């Protein structure tokens, strides 16, 4: 409809958060926009995929997700493994997507649900609700309204992409998308991915900033914000929630970049590439992966620098020389 505008209003909190996020993105730009740090980009992409799927009850560990992406054999539910493969393929499309084209959104959903849903890449034809676990937060609009509602939303974005800040627009879109719930499955995953598509067109560094990991940590707050917006009739609470999560995750990304700039040598990169996330390794097992025999060389060039940067942590930090000591990649 002409003049359609999603119900929201700018608040002082939103503007303060937009200012804070913009300042932090400037700091990331100073560090070459993550372009010179393929190791961090890859790790953050894996975090994004693992967290977004975990929100939707995928049980695979982050190490297993990495293995699936790397083409290794993983023992787990076939559907969950397919979800990882699909998500990785979908995230690889971010750079080529136009955030204001419904056709591109349908393409991404088709990839996200490939071999999982018959209606992959098509709007739903049945009734759906938004659930947090077994709790129904609200019932989505009936299916015959979905095409029109999605057209209105994308038309509003295209017409206002020069007027509405991308941080606000992406968050408003995220809520409106979840409210419309246009697909029979994969709505949350697609909403979070498209949020990144919108932001990455503003600043390409967002392609490798794992907002999903922050949402997953505060999953209850995510659904509570959605429910509150449904009651309030506008998306303000949800927009503020998402901006706070983005503001928070940027602090972590900036620290990642600083730490890597301070001393991520080729030795450390090689060790981290061979280690899986959240898997405890003994010193001997890491040395075997690296093909090393000298413990002194291992500690001096590989382990100690990674420990100093916080990229690897001890499982028994108060007893560094314990025979049961293990090391975990963070």
For this structure, the CATH topology of the largest domain is Fic-like fold
From the helix content, strand content and strand pairing, which structural class follows?
mainly alpha
How does the overall form come out from the CA principal axes? globular
CATH-derived architecture of the largest domain: Orthogonal Bundle
Average residue pLDDT: 91
Low-confidence stretches: none
Portion in beta strands: under 5%
Distance between the termini: 48 Å
Summed up, the helix count is 14
Domain Fido: 100-244
GO molecular function: ATP binding
Binding site for ATP: 185-192, 222-223
InterPro entries: Fic-like_C, Fido, Fido-like_dom_sf, Fido_containing
Structure in words:
This protein is mainly α. The protein folds into two domains: 12-261, Fic-like fold; 264-329, Arc Repressor Mutant, subunit A (Orthogonal Bundle), CATH 1.10.10. The protein is 59% helix and 5% strand. The protein contains 14 helices and four strands. It has helices spanning 12-30, 38-55, 62-69, 78-91, 102-112, 146-160, 166-180, 187-202, 211-217, 219-232, 236-263, 266-274, 283-290, 295-308, and strands at 129-132, 135-139, 312-314, 327-329. The chain has a two-stranded antiparallel sheet. Strands 3-4 form a two-stranded antiparallel ribbon. The longest helix is centred in the C-terminal third of the chain and has 28 residues, at 236-263. It is globular and about 70 Å long. The model has no long low-confidence stretch (mean pLDDT 91). The record marks 56 as: Important for autoinhibition of adenylyltransferase activity. Keywords: ATP-binding, Nucleotide-binding. It holds the Pfam family Fic.
